[in-house]
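Quick one, T. Sequence first:
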Amino acid sequence: MANSSEVLIVGAGLAGINAAITLQAAGVDVQVVESSERPGGRITSDLIDGFICDRGFQLINSKYPALVDLDVIKEIDFIAAPRVIEVSLGNDRHALGDPRVAPWTLLDRATGTMPEKIALLRFLAFTPKKNTSVEEALKIMGTTYIRVLRPFLHGVFLTELSNVDARYGQSIIKCFATGSPGVPRKGVAELPKALAARITSIRYGVQIDSIDNGVAHSSAGDFKAKKIIIATDATTATQLLGLNEVSRMAGCVTWYHAVDTNPSGSGRLVVDGQSRGPIINTVVISDISSDYAPAGRHLISTTTVLGATESDVRRHLSILWGTSTHEWQLIAKYEIPAALPIQSVGRELTQSVKISDTLYVVGDHRAVPSQQGALCSGRLAAELILN
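Structure tokens:
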């Protein structure tokens, strides 16, 4: 006999969770099913030999409007990250940060001239032209673009900036300028865990294989509902719904190394202003939250392009941190070929979440590629159902 509910949500990532919370608040009978054994989708963490390893370097922007609405940050022991990054040039690292907290960093000509940095403020103040890329909009900033913005934003979008729509890029940069990124003390998985705890009915380990006529079929039985929300990754959603187009995805590899001697102590993100290897960015993540590493040790999170070898990563890390990496212990390596949807040039910032009168699809691949986009798409589908 089929499990029955008013609304079935397939997937317990941020989009599915927020859809469930919104519907529950309105008194709707909701059932959530999730193929893994925990909520969060790509936002999850593993505990390995006493180290907390997030599956991919991720910061949570505590000022995202959707997170503010959910009032969840107070539940996850949130720690803000520094509002300053470091740009590696030659044998030195040059700080550049939010002028409200580090105004002196604007005077360092190694990261660009003052007019170039002021041009970034102009970019944020005016809407970019349609059908232009982030690269086209920012390359006029010369040295600041080449040495700072291009390597930093590569870590944000995980693809070349020529692939990314300028209007979307502007919105994300504004979020960094006005937001407060950081991590929960015990890892990013604390966010979806706290939100999932609000859901009345959620079942883990349930893989939905197909959907037809309001029934979702799985080896664990059938699930019947008046409305079904598909809140899986883009590829799975496309297969379940028989859609014609799959969102373009960007990938990366995240490496975790344990060290006894801390090469930083600041918790600042480091990027390479000279593109001397496969590393996109690197940070001593345990400088932000000491719980990420056992007492007396330190954990370094490094994001690279796909296909990077460990020897190349160690060589590049040695350059960026200015120290030998030969004795660094590799704790974990996560290859994530579909880490983030690509907001292609000219693509609308939001896509329709309603497929039919009974089927809806949500996720950051239906909105802007971010935690905010995922949360908003889930809420939007719930509101459409309620209306």
